[in-house]
Structures are given as C-alpha cells and as structure tokens.
C-alpha cells in the first residue's frame, strides 16, 4: 500500500487507512479515489498530491 502527500499542506493519504470521513474505505488505492477528491485540510485536488 502506498501513501500520497499533498504538496500544498503535507496531508498524507494512506491507502491502507483510506479516508473514512470522506467516504473512502480503508484499502482504497489512490487510482480508485474519486477524481473530485479534495485534500481534507486545504481543499486542493488530487493533481496536487505526489507519491511518498
């Protein structure tokens, strides 16, 4: 499982943990996260995340 980091604020999306608050189940791969996902801390889109 990989982790993806928001290049704006440093929030980490961990595929193993998902983002239950956003309705993304644990184990959800980054490519399966909806395209309209936004960083829960700063609001930028998926395009502003990089693999850790």
From TrEMBL:
SUPFAM superfamilies assigned to the protein according to its UniProt record, in alphabetical order: Rubredoxin-like
Binding site for Fe cation: 6, 9, 39, 42
Keywords for this protein: Electron transport, Iron, Metal-binding, Transport
CDD domains: rubredoxin (cd00730)
Family: Belongs to the rubredoxin family.
PANTHER family per UniProt: RUBREDOXIN, RUBREDOXIN-1-RELATED
Name used for this protein in its record: Rubredoxin
């Amino acid at each position: 499982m990989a982790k993806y980091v928001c290049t704006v604020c440093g929030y980490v999306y961990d595929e193993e943990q998902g983002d239950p608050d956003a309705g993304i189940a644990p184990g959800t791969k980054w490519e399966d996260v909806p395209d309209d996902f936004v960083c829960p801390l700063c609001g930028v889109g998926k395009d502003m995340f990089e693999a850790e």
